Structures are given as structure tokens and as C-alpha cells.
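Course assignment 3, question 2. Fill in each field.
Student: A.L.
Task: Predict the tertiary structure for the chain below.
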Amino acid sequence: METFDCVVVGGGPAGATAAADLAAAGRSVLLLDRAGRIKPCGGAVPPQLLADFDVPESVLCNKVDGARIIAPSHRKADMPIGNGFVGMVDRGPFDEWLRERARGLGAERRTGLFNALEQQPDGTALVRYKAGRSRGDALATVRARMVIGADGALSAVARQAMPKVVDEAQFVFAYHEVVESPAEQTAEFLQSRCDVYYEGTLSPDFYAWVFPHGPTTSVGTGSLQQGFALRRAVAELRARTGLDRVATIREEGAPIPLKPLSRWDNGRNVVLAGDAAGVVAPASGEGIFYAMTGGREAARAVHEALAEADGRVLGRARKRFMRRHGLVFRVLDRMQETWYRDDDRRERFVDICRDVDVQKLTWQGYMYKKLVFARPAAHVRIFLKNIGHLTGIIAPSPQAA
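Answer field:
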């Protein structure tokens, strides 16, 4: 039977990054990915991702230089980035580029659907998968010293290896439509701007978006409420922005995790990464950078566990990730709980987004992936303004777009 140092289940940003890192470190790696699946995603990536993961700008399909935030009252707040940009990627080509890079570094790529994980007395695991795309296709089996489960929010690897941990997961349900970008720029659509809508009719507890990807545009929404009419909300958004007059290329929906799971490994031979581990930032829903960072930490922990012959080492992946990004996740989680609960709070949140200090700190934190404490006076001003808006001392601005 074929034996690999690591079988990576899932070829998205987390899995492909993990496979690439392990292959580059000299480990034998099988990257198993099912074909034809593209996750619904706005596709925004920060400059820090390009630097950390050696991704060339040529992989981007667009750059935007600002965002526009729309309140429930339809009032708008412009947030120019200034000296920087937000990169945009189309997940289909982007994920494939990452998988091909892993293959070029020595990982073996196979198309297949994960079926089962069977633990063996010697500490290895048998990974069974359907090798084709038809119902009648036979199962194939390989042996793995370690397994990385990077197979999405509803991870089958996680359900089999750590069922009790998986039960704690919570999700935002997301849906988007990829459409042809309009030929003409209008007040409601600019190729260089991301639009974010905090309106109850479009999303009662999260947000809706219009993210331009060059020749195409992602129009989507998300909600924690099961049963919320996501398709109807996207249709309303397209009609309002004139994007109902362009062709629809594809439609995609999936659950998006709300916060990191409390444990990512089984202490033996399985560790999770990406959406399977829950590493999507609260409030913003940003996942690509954190998925790739989590995939890198999973690969590092697997490499160390193999070298030390100790599966308990796999726990380092979550510890190192949370040490670096845990505070940001906690801040964003509190922000979502505070400002997204109803339209009155969202109205005040958009007012805060007009503040120059808020804009500067937001973009610095986003682009470089760390909380910025270099301007304590600005933090104090923001804190006081937050208190004022929450208590009603500061009334919503009458300013309109």
C-alpha cells in the first residue's frame, strides 16, 4: 500500500499551502481534492498575504483602493485606503495556482472525494477516497503517517477524527453570484471600490457585498439565520446596483465558520486547517489569509510531529496561530456582537466608519494583519466615540451620500 508522510484532504488555500510547505521540507505528500468545487468568497486578500506566501501580483485579478460602507438608511461612508490596496482574486484560478505550486514543489495531486479515515494500531491512518466523480467509482486507499483536514467548514475529516469538537461549530450561511462586470462605471459600481451593505433586508446580522474582480464581480450576502432568503437578497442588491442587467456566470453557496474551534488536532495523527478549523475572521468574514496561515501552521506542526514521533506536537498549530492572531479574532468577535445586532446599531457603526482615525487604523490592521498600537491618542478617541454612539450621546450623522 502507498504510504505518505502526510495526506492533505482539501485543495483550497489552506490545504494547498500546507502541501506546498511540507513538500518543500522534503516530506512525501498527497494532496487530495475534489474537482469542480469553488467556495463562495468575496476574494479579498491583503498585501501581507502576497509577502508572507510569495504570491506574485500577477495572480490578482484586480486591485481596489477603497471601500464604501452603506447604512440601513442608505447613507454611505467612503473609506479610501490611501497608500495601499486590497487585492482581489477569483477563487477558481487562484486555488488552482496554489495547487499547482504545491505539485511543482513535489506534492502529488489527485482528484478524489474523501470517504473514510481508519486508525491503525501502528499510529498511522488509512485514508479511503473515491478516485473518480461518478457514483460507481471504486474506493482507493493510501496509508498516512499524518493527515491534514482542510476540507471545508463541514469537514468530513473533522467529523470522523474529532466529532465532539465539531459539534461546537457555528456558521454564517453565505451565497454569492459571480456576474460579468459592467462595461461602464457608475455611482453604484466602480472597479476600484468594494461596496459593503449593512442593511437588514440584505442581511439581518452580517453584511452583503459587491466586490469587483476585473472582468467579473462577486455579489453576495451572508446570515446566521437559517432560512433567510439569501438569493432574494442578492437579487435585490443586483437590481439596486444595476447588476441585474449583466450576465450571471455562476452561483455558489456554503456555510462559513464564525470562530476558531477550541481544538484542531486529535493528539495522534490528524490536524485541521482553514475553514475546517474555523479560521474565518468574525465581523469581516475574511478567510483566505487566515486559511493560508493556518495551513502553514498545520504543516509546520506535522513536520515537527514526524520528526519527534509524537502526535501531541500537533497541538502547536492552534497555539501558534492564536498567539499571533487570537487578539484580532477576539476584537472582531466583540465588534460583530456589538454592532451587527440590529439596524440601529449598524447605522451608528457606519457613522464610526466615517472617522479618519478609524479608517487609518482599520486599513493598517487589514493590510499588515496586526492590531496597530502606535497611535495611542487615536485609540482613545475611537474608544470614546464608540461609547458615545453606543449610549446615544452621539446621534447618527445626517450626512447623506
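Instructor remarks: The mean pLDDT is 90. The longest strand covers residues 139-149.
Grade: pending
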